[in-house]
Recover the amino acids of this structure.
């Protein structure tokens, strides 16, 4: 035991310095300003040891991705697609419609060609993905459950990716974004610590961004009611009536300075005063965008805002060719199923366009952000919203820290009174345990939550318990008449198995909590797990080294303060 005390002490010193470095500096080179004041040191610690939602304040959101709505849209699109396929080979279609999120029906006029129609559509749809049944003159196509489940899974993953992109654009530090509950619920958990404007963030996260540039059908005629517009559409399937948000004409220009007649007004939100008939087939869609940003309508920046968008090279080339061939015709800028503006094409337009409307600076910036991040695969609804104020988080920190300090002081006094100078040994081990725990959290980017503070307090208790086991074993050996050095050696050896056993079982429990638990439970598991691993080192290595140092100061120690 008394051998290699210096080497063991150097290991302890290295671990201590490394832990303090990670807590105070983090994973970077130190700078002189890191230690210029106590406030700066506190700021460094706050940066490296991140606080959770319950301590820092912020928003807790549970969202659901409406994946069946996306599947319904897929069936709607496929019904139109199947109709086009059949009409291209001369099979007249009476009706094409979706029946549910995974079923669509096609009714044809010539029942004798029903088998041909089935085979032709399945050839395009894929026989491994769709099943077809025939009933008279009607074909029913059903999406296989395997494909439907995969589509739902991908929709949730894509939604999480887009939400993450939108959160990053807001600069939210250490958000928590993960699947929530059983996979079949299609739910997402999002925690946003320290958000200044949670309502704006929540609105932007679920904002749709389905941008389409569609040809206007015929002239610029508008209709006062939806019924009038539908009557104008009649039986045509290549066009549809959409609400128009802008009407009054004014002059604007395209990217080359050519005049563009734009119908522009300031409507009430979601209250269309007219409708327009446009093509169902867009020339440009949202995924063709390369960039989008908000811009003021005036030089001084105080006017109405608009969104400037730029197209990818391939889309810009296609758009330039199309506008060059359609000069004098109308182009509707459709956003989320509403026509925001409908300019007349006065010249060839290539990569740049704009969306005008009743935009404030914030709404224009949010919409530009949404367009850049991409369209959500399905609508998202909030199932649970909870906001924690910073003051409540601060109270939690104060109470948690006060409880930790009170427990620590009581334990320190007890250890010194009951185990005398050996209690000092336990105190030093305990302090190093806490330092290593905080360093581990900083190292792995773990977030400290209120249940995490409970884990810290429990770690303190288990650290003391380990030292008590060792000290009581040493006392037993001393009472049995063993020499001091042998008593200490045997005390550590006999207590080690018990300590290891209790720690391994608790570590396994912590891992289970971490894997299967959610936010607060995982926070408790993280701190407890880090504390337990640190405690094995401090109780068996650090404490033993300090005993070795004390015993090495005498050739034949005859007494031990324990």
């Amino acid at each position: 035991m008394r051998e290699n005390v210096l080497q063991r002490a150097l290991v302890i010193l290295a671990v201590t310095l490394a832990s303090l470095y990670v807590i105070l500096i983090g994973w970077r080179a130190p700078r002189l300003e890191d230690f210029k004041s106590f406030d700066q040191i506190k700021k460094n610690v706050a940066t490296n040891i991140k606080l959770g939602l319950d301590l820092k304040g912020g928003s807790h959101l549970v969202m659901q991705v409406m994946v069946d709505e996306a599947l319904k849209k897929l069936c709607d699109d496929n019904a139109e697609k199947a109709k086009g396929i059949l009409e291209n080979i001369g099979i007249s279609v009476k009706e094409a419609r979706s029946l549910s999120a995974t079923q669509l029906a096609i009714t044809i006029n010539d029942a004798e060609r029903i088998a041909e129609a089935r085979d032709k559509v399945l050839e395009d749809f894929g026989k491994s993905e769709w099943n077809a049944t025939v009933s008279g003159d009607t074909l029913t196509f059903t999406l296989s459950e395997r494909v439907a489940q995969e589509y739902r899974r991908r929709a949730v993953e894509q939604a999480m990716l887009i939400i993450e992109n939108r959160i990053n654009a807001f600069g939210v530090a250490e958000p928590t974004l993960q699947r929530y509950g059983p996979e079949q619920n299609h739910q997402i958990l999002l925690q946003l610590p320290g958000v200044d404007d949670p309502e704006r963030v929540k609105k932007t996260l679920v904002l749709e961004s389905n941008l389409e540039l569609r040809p206007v059908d015929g002239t610029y005629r508008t209709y006062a009611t939806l019924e009038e517009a539908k009557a104008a559409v009649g039986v045509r399937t290549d066009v549809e009536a959409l609400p128009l948000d802008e009407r009054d004409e004014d002059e604007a220009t395209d990217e080359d300075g050519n005049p563009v007649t734009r119908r522009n007004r300031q409507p009430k939100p979601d209250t269309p005063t007219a409708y327009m008939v446009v093509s169902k087939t867009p020339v440009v869609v949202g995924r063709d965008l390369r960039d989008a940003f908000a811009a003021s309508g005036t030089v001084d920046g105080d006017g109405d805002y608009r969104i400037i968008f730029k197209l990818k090279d391939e889309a810009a080339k296609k758009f330039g060719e199309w506008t060059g061939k359609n000069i004098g015709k109308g182009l509707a800028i459709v956003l989320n199923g509403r026509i925001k503006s409908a300019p007349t094409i006065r010249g060839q337009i290539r990569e740049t366009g704009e969306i005008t409307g009743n935009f404030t600076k914030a709404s224009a910036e949010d919409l530009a952000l949404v367009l850049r991040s991409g369209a959500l695969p399905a609508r998202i609804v909030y199932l649970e919203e909870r906001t924690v104020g910073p003051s409540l988080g601060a109270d939690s920190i104060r109470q948690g820290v006060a409880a930790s300090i009170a427990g620590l002081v009581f334990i320190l006094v007890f250890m010194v009174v009951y185990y005398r100078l050996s209690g000092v040994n336990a105190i030093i081990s305990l302090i190093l345990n806490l330092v290593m725990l905080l360093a581990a959290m900083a190292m792995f980017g773990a977030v400290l939550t209120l249940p995490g503070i409970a884990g810290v307090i429990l770690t303190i208790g288990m650290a003391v318990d380990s030292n008590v086991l060792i000290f009581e074993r040493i006392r037993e050996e001393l009472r049995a008449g063993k020499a001091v050095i042998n008593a200490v050696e045997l005390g550590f050896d006999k207590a080690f198995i018990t300590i290891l056993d209790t720690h391994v079982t608790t570590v396994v429990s912590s891992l289970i909590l971490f894997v299967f638990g959610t936010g607060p439970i995982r926070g408790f598991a993280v701190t407890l797990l880090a504390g337990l691993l640190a405690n094995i080192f401090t109780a068996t290595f650090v404490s033993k080294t300090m005993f070795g140092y004390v015993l090495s100061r005498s050739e034949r120690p005859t007494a031990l303060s324990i």
Observations:
- Confidence is low (pLDDT under 50) at residues 247-269.
- The chain is about 50% helix and 20% strand.
- Residues 58-206 form one domain.
- The two ends are 17 Å apart (CA to CA).
